[in-house]
Amino acid sequence: MKNAWWKVLTVVLLVYTVVMGLLGPVPRLAILNETIRNLYFHVPMWFGMTIIFTASLVNSIRYLLRPSYRLDVLAYESARTGVVMGLLGLATGSLWARYTWGTWWTPDPRLNGAAVAMLIYCAYLVLRSSIADEQQSARIGAVYNIFAFCAAIPLLFILPRLTDSLHPGAGGNPGFNYYDQAKFMRPVFYPAVFAWTLLGVWITEVTVRLALVKQKLYEKQLA
Amino acid sequence: MQLLREIWYLMQKDFRLEWRQRAALNGMLLYVGSTVYVCYLSFVRGGQLPAPAWNALLWIILLFSATNAVAKSFLQESRGRLLYYYTLVRPEAVILAKIGYNALLLLLLGLLAFGAYSLVLGNPVQDMPRFLLVVVVGALGFASALTLISGIAAKAANSNTLMPVLGFPVVIPILLQLIKAAKNALDGLDASPQPVYMLLGMNLLVVAVSYLLYPFLWRT
After folding, report:
1. ipTM summary value
2. pTM
3. Which of A180, B105, B118, B195 is the most exposed place for a label (fewest CB within 10 A)?
4. Residue B32, min C-alpha distance to chain A (Å)
5. Domain range for residue B154?
């Protein structure tokens, strides 16, 4: 239980985020109204997803440089958690868009980027499950993970900055940067980022441990 | 220099193989031709297509024929032949040669598809040289993005389904830029070369990453 402090922290921060996010004070703005509370859910989920996908990428690179079962499990399980967080982010974002933009989906560069990221990691999971040999699956999966990540970066991070966008934080729309954000939202927003990221790490940690234990049991059966 | 010579031999080998077993090449040409004709028959009652739809349809045809053409580039290599390469050349030469070969093949297919397409569905292009340039850059882009994917898909069990599943998300950034650049050339209005530079940059990035990653792939 010594290392459990950050799990306690996660629970506390998440409870704080949900309570303060739903009940706390928010600026009264036209169009946005109460949907501004989505800042505490949608945005941190994307932060968490980006961090977890980056972790997956880093572990894939480390796997290629020095293959080991643990690194592969880390890369694979991070990608799976990232997909879950991405789907949550899409759902919250879509819901938000319905009430502010009046539509569930628009062909916006950022939304395209999000969709492409989801497609890539779903394709990664499909690829992993369609190669029977474990080591081959790990190595080929790592290659695809790195390749797809590099190929999609222009779409995710560069293109949205070159074109106008409806999405907050682009094309003259106020976003969550230092100057636009109401000061009293920050005490909820920053803990929310931590909380959702930690939740992602926690989920990944549990699934990784499960996979490693299963592998150990399997090895014991063989011996 | 050694690398260039290896690339040159491998590309020659691919062209010779393609020429000797013309079934695959003829299959691809027929695929392009029949796709264009199916599109023509589906749209023939609507009169002349509006320019954005014309453009989008052309690029979708090009994307699908590219995916089909590139998919077989590693499938046709038998296990023994790959082992043979392993003793002769370095992996970087294999992937670069495949990318170069696929680029030329897709260029041929793309120009033919474009010709057939404008023959039956009309040609509203205003700035022809620039549009052709975009088609050339497009062939390069599809080849560079899809070649490594075909290498990955060839290792998996159901590689025919995996090829588009793995390839499309990777190609989407390039496809979006291509459609934008082609639309500019189509209208003949916005002459800024920025989308073309953007495309060349993306191609360079994708080729560089393929170059770095292929050595890890081919030893499996």
Report:
1. 0.84
2. 0.84
3. A180
4. 26
5. 2-218
